[in-house]
Amino acid sequence: MKVEVRPLAEFTTLGVGGDAEIWTVETPADLLLATREPYRVLGNGSNLLVSDRGVPERVIRLGGVFARAELGRPRGDVHLTPWLGAGALLPGLVQEARRLGLSGLEPLLGIPASLGGAVRMNAGTRFGEMADVLEAVEIFHDGAFAVYHPGELGFGYRRSNLPAGGIVTRVRLRLRRRDPAEIAALMERVDAARKGQPKRKSAGCAFKNPPGDSAGRLIDRAGFKGLRAGGAMISHEHGNFVVNTGGASAADVWKLVKRIQEELPLELEWEIWGDLP
Ligand code: FAD
Ligand code: EPU
After folding, report:
1. What is the Å distance from ligand 1's center to 12 Cα?
2. Nearest-angstrom CA–CA distance, 90 and 112
3. How does DSSP assign 134-184, residue by residue?
4. Mean pLDDT by 10 residues, the chain (277 residues)
5. Contact predicate 141/165, CB 8 Å
6. CA distance 204 to 181
């Protein structure tokens, strides 16, 4: 196990966030030790806005056995995968599934999540979401591992209801055999739906979509695109993305969020870590 104090800016896709003690756990014994004091769990940091002052809690990252994942040899029309480490990254699994002729992960193409973070957020697109392909979820809480059926985890649009302090450690997926050409065709459609999203550093959409509408469209219509605070900017390409144009602080990003919320009743999709001004 590695324990180091690092700026969380290095571990988030937005590239902001102050120092924290980072505990990279590699075995169940590490996990037991790391969770003895207050903690937070970090996935790939792609849905986080972290305070410039960092966080006082331990930040747990899943490495070692918790980051290993192979989908296994497809057998039969329905393929239940082996247990996959929740620290593994989704993009690699989406590509592995395509190569193996396994369908189910195509809707998640382009989401830079860890498997555990994708479960926690029920990450998805209009083509489908994480909960659709879950067979079972292993969660560590109160010092023990327990296996849950997805029906027990309260999944909804970009939400879940994990047990308090629960760390997703492993998951099994339910995939289906499909013609690779059909898989590739669906992936192209998902990719096309993302064409309007910026390539610069971001944490994805800042706000959830209100029922029947798009937060990006509302922010765009309100004239906020291109608005800057320090190194942060509301993307010209998509109104629901705040991009780090270089040297942005959490305080900069937060100014833009508050400015939007003064005018529009939108709920944050990002998770906020630590105190913001
Ligand atoms: P983090 O950002 O590290 O953490 C998010 C939350 O999950 C935190 O509360 C954290 O404590 C918790 N968490 C992380 N790992 C675990 C675990 N193992 N057990 C328990 N809790 C955990 N999201 C979508 O839904 N659809 C999209 O199309 C999409 N597109 C994106 C595009 C870009 C360019 C970017 C940067 C982000 C995008 N996102 C999208 C947002 C983001 O990728 C998702 O919310 C993703 O699920 C976050 O996963 P993560 O591993 O990065 O989690
Ligand atoms: N639109 C605008 N201006 C903008 C942005 C969007 O007018 O600046 C319009 C578009 O033209 C379109 C509509 O709003 O008519 C919807 O836009 P888009 O297709 O980009 O989808 P979205 O609702 O903004 C959602 C998810 C994305 C996901 C895409 C693709 C949310 C909050 N966002 O975006 O998820 O990638 O669909 O399925 O649910 C994320 O959650 O982080 C995320 C990026």
Report:
1. 10
2. 7
3. EEEEEEEETTEEEEE-GGGS--BTTB--PPTT-EEEEEEEEEEE--HHHHH
4. 98 98 98 98 98 98 98 94 98 97 98 98 98 98 97 98 97 97 98 97 98 98 98 98 98 98 98 97
5. yes
6. 29
259 catalytic? Reply is: no
pTM as predicted: 0.98
Report which ligand 2 atom has the smallest distance to the Cα of 193. Answer: 30
* CA atoms within 13 Å, Cβ hemisphere of 105: 30
Residue at token pair 């959409």: 205
Phi-psi region of 93 (alpha: psi -120 to 50; beta: other; left: phi over 0): alpha
Radius of gyration of the chain measured on its C-alpha atoms: 19
Tell me how far the alpha carbon of residue 50 lies from the centroid of ligand 2, in angstroms: 23
**Helix (H, G, I), strand (E, B), or coil: what is residue 127?**
coil
Residue 217 annotated as catalytic: no
Q: Are strands 144-148 and 134-141 parallel, antiparallel or unpaired?
A: antiparallel
pLDDT of residue 75: 83
- The structure tokens listed for 214 are 């798009």
